[in-house]
């Protein structure tokens, strides 16, 4: 297990999880993931974050190729989520660090997760810095980006920002740097990661990007806790630009139709709605919730500003997979979207009212009435679905200035 020197005396000593598909119990990680840990050798040796507990041996093996464990002086905890702090108790036992640095809320989180009695915890806030020899480490709190404890660490002498979960991607590969991997793959994985994890914090992303710009600090490397490292000013700026684009959620001329179905009537309606979008030149993706995972739907939302839900009426409501999708999406708080609703029913027909209410609660604009049909769609009901797609497409194009 070899470390990777990412800058002079700065080493990646993390782990690659090639088999992970379940990220944090709520999202998919189809490409696996990484748990990035960084070690800086100076007059003081500093370890930044750890790895998921079952990768302890991998991390220790890489570290041992750089330094003896007892020579680790400081541990910096930028983020206390267990995939980054899971090995902390064992490291404290093995390394006996002089100090463990964390944010004020990081201390609270650390104490809630572990028995920290006797640990040399030192709280740092935005603007605090420490000297480790030829380098300084400056701390910047990034509360709720994406946990209350989150902070980033900046080393000016290396122009290096160790940035915990922000700017990350779920990807497992032997490459460590963005410029070694196909750019389209990186961008897709960034979209997937952002829209399933960071999206609710988009206003904070914009503030953080502005704050970094106002601070005037030079950054030529972004080292996140998941995924590939951005090196060189151009790639760092590319990452910042992508994050600003994701956070601003500008209108995009693309639609996604999300549905579940019992006896295929609602499914047939979905295809008719899609025909309406296509007739207006708006690309559309149809996603069936029995085959498309909710995190894949959120990834699709990264490029779609029209979101149309379909469900038959079930027990005076909607089908469970649709309800689950709506709950997941609501928590991620997408902005700047128009919505639509459709569905079939047998007796009571509450599906469209229920779907529309959920979309309105999320702040979606609903420019057209929903369509519901009883039992099996006819030629006339297909026409209504088609026309709904046409009207939604026209409304979206107006938003896009098309």
UniProtKB/TrEMBL annotation:
GO molecular function, one term: oxidoreductase activity
Residue ranges annotated for the Flavodoxin-like domain, each copy included: 255-393
Family matches, as Pfam families: Flavodoxin_1 (PF00258), ODP (PF19583)
Family the entry assigns: In the N-terminal section; belongs to the zinc metallo-hydrolase group 3 family.
Protein name as annotated: Flavorubredoxin
Organism: Halodesulfovibrio aestuarii
């Amino acid at each position: 297990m070899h470390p990777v020197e990412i800058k002079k005396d700065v080493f990646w000593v993390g782990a690659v999880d090639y088999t992970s598909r379940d990220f944090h119990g709520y999202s998919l990680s189809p490409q696996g993931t990484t748990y990035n840990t960084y070690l800086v050798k100076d007059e003081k040796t500093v370890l930044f974050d750890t790895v998921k507990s079952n990768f302890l041996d991998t991390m220790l093996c890489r570290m041992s190729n750089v330094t003896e464990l007892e020579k680790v002086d400081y541990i910096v905890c930028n983020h206390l989520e267990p995939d980054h702090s899971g090995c902390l108790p064992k490291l404290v036992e093995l390394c006996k660090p002089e100090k463990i640095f964390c944010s004020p809320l990081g201390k609270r989180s650390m104490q809630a997760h572990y028995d920290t009695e006797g640990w040399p915890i030192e709280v740092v806030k935005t603007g605090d810095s420490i000297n480790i020899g030829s380098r300084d480490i400056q701390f910047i709190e990034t509360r709720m980006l994406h946990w209350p404890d989150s902070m980033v660490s900046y080393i000016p002498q290396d122009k290096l920002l160790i940035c915990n979960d922000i700017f990350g991607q779920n990807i497992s590969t032997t490459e460590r740097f963005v410029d070694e991997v196909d750019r389209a793959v990186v961008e897709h994985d960034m979209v997937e990661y952002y829209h399933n994890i960071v999206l609710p914090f988009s206003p904070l992303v914009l503030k953080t990007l502005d704050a970094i710009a106002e601070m005037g600090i030079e950054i030529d490397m972004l080292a996140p806790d998941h995924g590939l490292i951005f090196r060189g000013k151009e790639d760092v700026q590319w990452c910042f630009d992508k994050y600003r684009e994701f956070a601003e959620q500008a209108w995009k001329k693309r639609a996604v139709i999300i549905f579940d179905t019992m006896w295929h009537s609602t499914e047939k309606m979905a295809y008719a709605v899609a025909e309406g979008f296509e007739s207006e030149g708006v690309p559309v993706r149809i996603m069936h919730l029995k085959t498309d995972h909710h995190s894949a739907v959120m990834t699709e939302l990264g490029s779609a500003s029209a979101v149309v839900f379909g469900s038959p009426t079930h027990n005076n409501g909607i089908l469970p997979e649709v309800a689950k999708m709506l709950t997941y999406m609501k928590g991620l708080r997408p902005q700047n979207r128009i919505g639509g609703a459709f569905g079939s029913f047998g007796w009571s027909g509450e599906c469209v009212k229920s779907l529309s209410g959920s979309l309105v609660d999320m702040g979606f604009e609903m420019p057209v009435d929903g369509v519901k049909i009883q039992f099996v769609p006819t030629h006339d009901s297909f026409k209504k679905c088609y026309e709904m797609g046409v009207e939604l497409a026209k409304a979206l194009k107006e938003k896009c200035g098309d």
